[in-house]
Amino acid sequence: MPRREAEPEQAERVPWVRFAVWLVAGIVLMVAVLFAWRFSEEFLIKDDRFRITEADDFAGQSPNLVVEGVHHASPSQVRHIFAEDYGRSLYLVPIQKRRQQLLAIDWVEDATVSKIWPNTVKVGVHERSPVAFVRLPPNHRDGMSRFALVDRDGYILRPRVAAKFTLPVIAGIRETEPLEDRRARVRRVLGMLQEIGALASQISEINVADPNDLIVEEHVDKAVVKLMLGDENYTERLQNFLANYGEIREKRPDAKILDLRVDGVITAVGDDQGG
Q: Which of 103, 149, 230, 260 allows an S-S link to 130, with CB 3.0 to 4.6 Å?
């Protein structure tokens, strides 16, 4: 009888023994994995083969930083973002953080940051495309007008390197206004320019302070006239102005501002000072 009672007790202990064995094996395996991971991480951090060579001069020219796609942005501004990575392992470079820092540069529309093992960072930059010059409000210190560039999404761009652009000039945009408002104003100008086609060659500046009333500076017969075009039928209104300019000049030679917002009607508003 005692033997028969011992057999069930032994049978009950077997699962617990197996569980204990698997538990110990699991703990040993986990410790081994953690040790291997730690050893591998230390190897990647400390081994000189993965070290990004420090810049060889104050300009930050590291041979292990490859930057592509930069034409109008400041190359030194891009390189400066990676300054703290020089001299340490490629493994430690936070590529997502560096990408976000690149996107904070005005000219950068998109960017990629890649690790090229063993020790190279590759940066790809897609720059914004300017569509116009923008005349910003005068500087309070000296009263001088300031010029910058703007892209179709309303981002203000300041040239960092020498470049030539043949673009229209937009006035009436403020750097302090919301981006959505700037975008709407720029898109309205671009829509107008696309509509009038070749007639745009005589326009030197478009004022979009009121996006529902575009005012353009038209060069005609060695004179500059401001035309209030409203928000539609731009081509017809400009063609009507050009067809009747001779008569307007004869009757009102002092008129520098003309209202074209009513189709088929041209009204002389006054001179440039509102007379």
A: 149
In Å, how far from its chain's centre is CA 220? 37
7, pLDDT greater than 70: no
**Of 116-120, 138-142, 160-164, 240-244, which gets the smallest average pLDDT?**
138-142
Section 9-30 average pLDDT: 69
Among the listed residues 135, 175, 179, 174, the one whose alpha carbon sits nearest the alpha carbon of residue 153: 179
Is CATH 3.10.20.310 what the domain over 50-127 is classified as, yes or no? yes
Q: What is the CA radius of gyration of the chain?
A: 34
Q: Are 205 and 172 in contact (CB under 8 A)?
A: no
Q: Which residues contact 135 (CB under 8 A, 6 or more apart)?
A: 145, 146, 147, 169, 170, 171, 173, 205
Kindly report the pTM of this predicted structure. 0.79
Q: What is the pLDDT of residues 222-246, one digit of tens each?
A: 889 999 999 999 999 999 999 999 9
130-270 has which fold?
Answer: Rossmann fold (3.40.50)
Chain segment 242-266, per-residue pLDDT in tens: 999 999 999 998 899 999 999 999 9
CA-to-CA separations, 167 to 13, 69, 130, 162, 221, in angstroms, rounded: 87, 22, 8, 16, 22
Domain ranges across the chain: 2-46, 50-127, 130-270
